[in-house]
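Quick one, T. Sequence first:
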Amino acid sequence: MTDRTDIHDRLATSLREARKARGLSLDAAAKLSGVSRSMVSQIERGESSPTVATLWALTRALQLDFAGLLEGRPTPGIEVTRAAAAPVITRGGVTIRILSAPETVGAHEVYELVFTKGATLTSEPHSPGCREHLTVLEGRLTVASGEATEALGPGDVARYPADRAHEIAAGTGAARAILIVQDS
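Structure tokens:
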């Protein structure tokens, strides 16, 4: 049996909170970091002593300060996420760049969405009362929520229930949008 130390517990808590704060699943964290899903899970449960290389990969993917990993929350100030450092997920022709502040994920999430021609982002229902606010920056998109569907162009804003199946689709060209997800 392995003894779980305070360091393991703090490391597990820090990594798990950072992953959840960024709205990432274990699979997404694994994909972004290059660390296997099972290893990420073991580390988050305090069941594994990760190598420095593994910790480095995870902290880079989760945008954590490696040196302060076990120190707790940083002091207040201006928090900047450089464009190249924002977590990015790609699904079926849609690039999703996470813009949310870590402490607001789950209540108020912000994403930049970049669609290739014909790409669709399909989502299962979120929690009851959840709403999305989609602003088209470039191109044209179609948004569907439940049975309702609307076509949008640059500058258009759609607000719709996200507690039902919904999707955002690009038509004959590429498109870019900002998506805000508000959980009630």
